[in-house]
Amino acid sequence: MGKIILGITGSIAAYKGAEILREFQKRGWEVQVAMTEAATKFISPLTLQTLSSNRVIVKQFEDVQSLEHITLCKEAEALLIAPATADFIAKMASGLADDFLSSVFLACQKPVFVAPAMNQGMLLHPATRRNLETLRSWGIRIIEPEKGYLACEDEGLGRLAEPRKIVFEVLSALGKELKGKKVLVTAGPTREYIDGVRFISNPSTGKQGVALAEQASLMGAEVVLLLSEASPLQPLVKTQRFSSSEELLKKVLSSDFHWLFMTAAVGDFAPREKFKGKLKREGELVLRLEPTPDLLKEIASRKKPGQVIVGFAAETGNFLERGKEKLLKKSLDYIFVNPVGNGKGFASDENQGWLISREGEVFEIPLSPKEEVAREIIEIILKREEE
């Protein structure tokens, strides 16, 4: 990993700097904190120094070595200013350097990210909008604030983006392993409707697919996630929703991608007839089911040169045999086979299984959090495709 400079300015949201710091550390990054004098009124430098294990720099001359604002920028991968007040954004846009953090900004030749936090009126003021546009024109990435309850007891736009989202956007922009790759991920269960309110589905939540999409983004890919309407998850990547297997197929076939991860739990059968409205409970109901489209086979048959298609199969036994059979039958590049049932697979935070390549190689992935499983799947495929 590397080092991030975290600049904290004098906003009531400054206390969230500790959460942002922790989010970076969870992902193995070192954090160097620089604060404005005003920020120290909202959160103690000692708190951030204790969490980061690095000296927190506040004053321009008294607390730092000569030219430290320059050497820090050379060591770091990026500069993140979060929260950024209207005052500090104006200072950045004007090129002022009257404190340590503004000097760091002017000296920094690395990617710069700004997460504003302020009252809605201040955010929407023409001066602030102009200053933000100036920063954007210089290639600085603005992590947009959210709507919510503000410190002034108003509801509106200006709330600092959630720390997890801020860190995700920074690290996604810095990711290099999949830079230039377009990755499409499908996740969650299909719904095949019987009538206007009832449907056939399965207990998938889409967690593994969301983990794959977010990990691919953190590795620098341009990611689109097709997520079931049944999934309650709120991913950090660009997301489109789907319901039925037919709708999912249309969305995949109309998408442009280099890699496709088909983690969606597609139902094998759908009612032959969909009843209008809501069926009344009157006597026996007989349903005739017909097979749903074989999405993987249909998609693989239209595969373009350079595309990689990865299937996922949830099984209850004979994992490797069934996985290899599906891999060949559907003409896939890889398939990940995992056990389900008895608390495994669906709706769980952990997963395990075997990734099988088109050449028949088998890579066992032990029981791990789904984020780690996703990362390992991507790394195995990346290594093999680069050989």
Characterise this structure:
The protein is of the alpha/beta class and about 375 residues long. It folds into two domains: about 5-175, 3-Layer(aba) Sandwich (Rossmann fold); about 180-385, Rossmann fold (3-Layer(aba) Sandwich). Helices cover about 35% and strands about 25% of the residues. It has 13 helices and 19 strands. It has helices spanning about 15-25, 45-50, 70-75, 85-95, 100-105, 120-125, 125-135, 165-175, 205-220, 245-255, 295-300, 320-330, 370-385, and strands spanning about 5-10, 30-35, 80-85, 110-115, 140, 145-150, 155-160, 180-185, 190-195, 200, 220-230, 240, 260, 270, 290, 310-315, 335-340, 350-355, 360-370. An eight-stranded mixed beta sheet has the order 12-11-8-13-16-17-18-19, with helices on both faces. It has a five-stranded parallel beta sheet with strand order 2-1-3-4-5, with helices on both faces. The longest helix is centred in the last third of the chain and has 17 residues, at about 370-385. The mean pLDDT is about 95.
CATH architecture of the largest domain: 3-Layer(aba) Sandwich
CATH H-tier superfamily of the largest domain: CoaB-like
CATH fold label of the largest domain: Rossmann fold
| CATH hierarchy, class of the largest domain | Alpha Beta
Summed up:
This protein has helices at 17-26, 45-52, 68-75, 86-94, 100-107, 120-124, 126-137, 163-174, 207-218, 245-253, 295-301, 319-329, 370-386, and strands at residues 3-8, 30-35, 78-84, 112-116, 141-142, 146-149, 155-159, 182-187, 192-193, 199-200, 222-228, 238-242, 259-262, 269-271, 289-291, 308-315, 334-339, 350-357, 362-369. By secondary structure, it is of the alpha/beta class.
